[in-house]
Design a protein that fits this description.
Elements lengths: L2 E4 L2 E7 L2 E4 L9 E4 L2 H7 L4 H8 L9 E8 L6 E8 L4 E2 L11 E10 H4 L3 H11 L14 H10 L1 H6 L5 H5 L17 H8 L11 E10 L2 H7 L5 E8 L2 H18 L1 H5 L9 E2 L3 H36 L9 E7 L1 E10 L2 E10 L2 E2 L18 E4 L7 E6 L3 H5 L2 E2 L9 H7 L2 H12 L2 E4 L2 H6 L8 H11 L2 E14 L1
Parallel strand pairs: 4-5, 19-20
Antiparallel strand pairs: 1-2, 2-3, 3-4, 5-6, 6-14, 7-11, 8-10, 8-12, 9-10, 9-20, 13-14, 15-18, 16-17, 17-20
Subunit structure: Monomer.
Function: Essential for tRNA splicing and maturation. Acts by directly joining spliced tRNA halves to mature-sized tRNAs. Joins RNA with 2',3'-cyclic-phosphate or 3'-phosphate ends to RNA with 5'-hydroxy ends.
Cofactor: Mn(2+)
């Protein structure tokens, strides 16, 4: 048996690309890492494996804790982590979902080609940057009051549809049709609502972005056809989440859980894993608040997409409908959901925690939108702004191996602090434009440095492993044209 050891943690190779940390001591289940040798070296280079092993102590966790190929160190629970806990005997953990609740990605297709944008790159990047709010703090596409925020938290994209920021087709091509009906706006604090009040329709900062891309490769023509993708086509990728509202909500409930469920916390190896017991008042409140934040994030991305349509109308002089600017799919990658999965031959309702992991349901699954049910759920995997991104579809092995999940991006290999020491933002921008014809605009050079291509893993390798394991199958590859960041 092939084994590897990192800082005293031993992994045994179960099969190609599957490594297991055997159950021992107070671990409730084994832990698994899905990675090639090069990716495993990077995953083992920080605290990812320790955090993954710690996560196996969560009450009610089933089968195994899992780290995706893009995994890296997070707060308590690793980014790229998946953990499923029983909804009756387990727990729900805000730290295993993340501070940016429903951080996710959506891709909008167009009928424009790369030829249509050449010569307009600078005009387009300037127009997008001027019209799509980004950066730290406030400023959104719409100003809202307390009543409106409550409406968004309760209704998600239904609110956007009613207000003229969406069309029916947008909802039909979003995970859960853009609304979680378990949402409880009353469980979201006034402080969180106030932070979100003027951020509806904003990218935020950090690794969030809006990127116009061109389709460069098609790997499965039948699936690409179902998704409406073809070579040389322009698409738009939007990556952001629930902004300050989601961050405050996570903070609020971590503090509440620490105070009320200190006995459970005392049994966990890391307080950032703080969890509320299933069925408890706090578990129900947090789940309702989290679902409300999910609705906020879907609405946020919807408004950004609608504004992008308006920008394209001005730059290209055509109605967005004429350019066929339709949503391909929107999928969350920081989320906790009640789902039914088979465990040891028995169907059980579980809280599936995905933190930096994407839902990847295969063809035929009832929760895949009707438009894609015959081919499988679309998955969007962003690379760095100097590398390609990918569209995948839910693989046949995902339900068995990963509770219907795969990676969410390339995954960092360098901290933001280190990145700013290694890279200079202006040099990164110039190099991308001069060598790859990628136009980048951001609020600051520091943001560009933090997100330089060199701080990320090889997205091609991440996707190759996902495809080889059958959890997310390659459909198409895209490449950046213009990119705006906070």
């Amino acid at each position: 048996m092939t084994t590897r050891e990192f800082d005293g943690i031993t992994l045994e190779q179960v099969r190609e690309y599957v490594w297991e940390i055997p159950q021992e001591g107070d671990m409730r289940v084994p832990a698994r890492v899905l990675a090639s040798e090069p990716l495993l070296e990077q995953i083992g280079d920080d605290l990812t494996l320790k955090q993954l092993k710690n996560s196996t102590h969560l009450p009610g966790i089933t089968k195994y804790a899992i780290c995706m190929p893009d995994g890296h160190q997070g707060y308590g629970f690793p980014v790229g982590g998946v953990g499923a806990t029983d909804t009756e005997t387990g727990c729900v953990s805000p730290g295993a979902i993340g501070y940016d609740i429903n951080c996710g990605v959506r891709m909008m297709r167009t009928n424009l080609t790369y030829d249509d944008v050449q010569g307009k790159e600078e005009e387009l990047v300037e127009a997008l940057f001027a019209n799509v709010p980004s950066g730290l703090g406030g400023g959104g596409i719409v100003e809202t009051d307390r009543e409106t925020i409550n409406d968004i938290l309760a209704r998600g994209m239904d609110w956007a549809l009613e207000e003229g920021w969406a069309v029916e087709d947008d909802l039909e091509h979003c995970e859960d049709e853009g609304v979680r009906y378990d949402a409880d706006p009353s469980a979201v604090s006034q402080e969180a609502k106030e932070r979100g009040r003027n951020q509806v329709g904003s990218l935020g900062s950090g690794n969030h972005f809006l990127e116009v891309q061109r389709v460069t490769d098609i790997y499965r023509e039948d699936v690409a056809d179902a998704y409406g993708l073809e070579p040389n086509q322009l698409v738009v990728l939007i990556h952001c989440g629930s902004r300050g509202l989601g961050h405050q909500t996570c903070t609020d409930y971590l503090r509440k859980i620490e105070k009320r469920h200190g006995d459970l916390l005392a049994d966990l190896p890391d307080k950032e894993l703080a969890a509320a017991p299933a069925g408890s008042e706090l578990a129900e409140q947090y789940y309702g608040a989290m679902c409300a934040c999910i609705n906020f994030a879907w609405t946020n991305r919807q408004l950004i997409m609608h504004r992008t349509r308006q920008v394209f109308e001005k730059v290209f002089g055509r109605e967005w409908q004429d350019m066929e600017m339709h949503l391909l799919y929107d999928v969350a990658h920081n989320i906790g959901k009640k789902e039914i999965h088979e465990v040891e031959g028995e169907e059980r309702e579980l809280y599936v925690h995905r933190k930096g992991a994407t839902r990847a349901f295969p063809a035929g699954h009832p929760e895949v939108p009707k438009a894609y049910r015959d081919v499988g759920q679309p998955i969007i995997i962003p690379g760095s702004m100097g590398a390609g991104s990918y569209v995948l579809r839910g693989g046949e092995q995902s339900l068995d191996l990963t509770f219907g999940s795969t990676a969410h991006g390339a995954g960092r290999i360098m901290s933001r602090t280190q990145a700013k020491k290694e890279f200079w933002g202006g040099d990164v921008q110039d190099d991308l434009q001069e060598t790859q014809q990628i136009y980048v605009k951001a609020q600051s050079g520091a943001t560009v440095a933090e997100e330089a291509p060199g701080v990320y893993k090889d997205v091609d390798e991440v996707v190759r492993v996902s495809d080889a394991l059958g959890i997310g199958d390659k459909v198409a590859r895209t490449f950046p044209v213009v990119n705006i960041k906070g």
